[in-house]
Design goal:
Two copies of one chain form a homodimer. Chain A is an alpha/beta fold. In chain A, about 35% of the residues lie in helices and about 25% in strands. The first copy, chain A, is built from ten helices and 13 strands. In chain A, strand 8, helix 3 and strand 9 form a beta-alpha-beta unit. In chain A, helix 6 crosses helix 7.
Chain lengths: ~300, ~300
């Protein structure tokens, strides 16, 4: 519930995909993936998640059942007749961080033109997953007075469509970006300076993602840190960043007020969800979690960070 | 004071050097440096630091005055008649992380044979800086029943003298090591597994240093994390790791008991001292700090990590 008593929900736009992955830990063919999928399932543990995305006819009951199983409202996922779903094929290096893209078949994603079901226009909170900033803007245009808007981006948009990116940036509350991309976007080497430069572009907050080293949130006034869970086994890093953002945004969406304490807890929710995501292929690690699984992992993060 | 009422002190062995450094921020010629110098000055804010090291006749009153100014007992620094002090010349890349060594003149350091003044043999705590493990062992041989022993190491000893390294490792309480070197030493990619493998080699604790991302401490039972201070300006990263270790070990040495809470505070002391060190060339950032400067930075780290 938000402070106004409205039941909170989080609108998520992003990719829905099939991922074919080779990793030192094994491989999967055409497994459920995509930023909107990881983010919405992660968010579903904290708020009511709803997705706007596009898929082909090869995306069927089995896939929708996964979203449905987590209570994700998939009514904004358009199925293009005769179309095929976005397909990514990649191979992870032994270090489980670097990866090669072997194939990217955009398919129906190439013509993605997000149109929100009417009810989605009154979403309380919004997460704009990493897609073309023009499309992110188009989604935002269709939402009336959202409370909190987070967005993700990537190097492609920083270099190819910088003006579009800056336009969306000026309209959101928070940007998720990784270390390297924050430098690319701002020209600043030191994370504190990159963060200030980003905040000067519009967002009140920026979360700089550092992979296995955790994440750091900056506002104009304060800075908050969360480590990544030191896992003994990482099976598949795909979707870690989206799961982090989904957990974070879901937590924020589910919170009555958005203050420093909420953001600190949201960072932990994000780190917990990212850690679950990488323990299995596809969304296997995010399914079937109980409240106690999440609470336990957040408690571990708290304990790692405790001052005494 | 230790629990037994003995006044605590920290014996530090390591290099004393002149560093000539070129960095994007400027350059210095033959500035005071070396692991024992950074570590002892950082430690001096928390305990009584004493150094065993070797220098040449070019190391004179000006340099000793810096140590003296921080109350560091330099009576274990042997001046080799006619000798010259270890000199390192390096250049930092624009990213302020990668660096090229332009010259390494070991000079008197090549014949370093640490012999402790009698009083040093009763040191309460010991920090074995990053030198040949044979020499680290020789220092340890001369100390009677120390309470807590920490050691540092580097890739050179991991690859060149692994057996010697393993012998010292089995005799210490804590190892400081960086991310990459922890993988090299253990063959383990995931930090939690590398830490377990190191603990199986002898130390009760391992602190894995991650540069600008902070550090993570593992024991058999728990894990503690500290971020690095997000500084707006890094002038010279030289000595950051030594200052971290010095601050950490100094804090431990000054603590009445060594438990989880002490280690959590020690991580913050280390991160604070490392952050001061990199703000100036040589030891400029570590000199003339007040208790309140350090407390303020530790409070900032606490605040960054706070769960709400």
């Amino acid at each position: 519930m938000t402070a106004s008593g409205q039941q909170s929900n989080l609108l998520i736009v992003g990719s829905v995909a099939f991922d074919s992955i080779e990793a030192p830990s094994g491989s999967v063919e055409r497994a459920l993936g995509g930023s909107a999928v990881f983010a919405s399932i992660a968010a579903s543990y904290f708020t009511r998640a709803r997705v706007v995305a596009v898929v082909g006819e090869d995306f069927g009951g089995e896939q929708f059942a996964v979203l449905d199983g987590r209570g994700v409202d998939a009514s904004g996922i358009r199925v293009v007749p005769g179309g095929r779903t976005f397909h990514w094929r990649g191979r992870y290096h032994d270090n489980m961080q670097d990866r090669d893209t072997l194939a990217t078949e955009l398919n129906v994603f190439e013509g993605f033109d997000p149109v929100l079901p009417d009810a989605f226009g009154r979403s309380t909170d919004v997460f704009l997953g990493n897609i073309d900033p023009k499309l992110q803007a188009k989604v935002l245009d269709q939402v009336t007075g959202p409370r909190f808007v987070g967005m993700d981006t990537m190097n492609l948009w920083i270099t190819e469509t910088p003006a579009d990116l800056r336009e969306v940036l000026a309209r959101v509350d928070l940007l998720f970006i990784n270390d390297e991309e924050s430098r690319q976007l701002t020209g600043e080497r030191q994370v504190a300076n990159a963060a200030s430069a980003i905040i000067a572009m519009g967002p009140r907050y920026v979360v700089i993602k550092r992979g296995e080293y955790g994440a750091i949130l900056f506002s104009g006034d304060f800075c908050l840190f969360v480590p990544a869970m030191p896992l003994r086994r990482v099976v598949d890093p795909t979707g870690a960043g989206d799961s982090f953002a989904g957990g974070f945004m879901g937590f924020v969406s589910g919170a009555a007020q958005i203050d420093r304490a909420t953001l600190a807890r949201a960072l932990r929710a994000g780190a917990a969800m990212a850690s679950f995501a990488v323990e299995r292929f596809s969304v296997g690690g995010l399914e079937g979690l109980g409240r106690s699984d999440i609470d336990r992992r957040v408690a571990e993060l708290d304990s790692m960070c405790a001052a005494r």
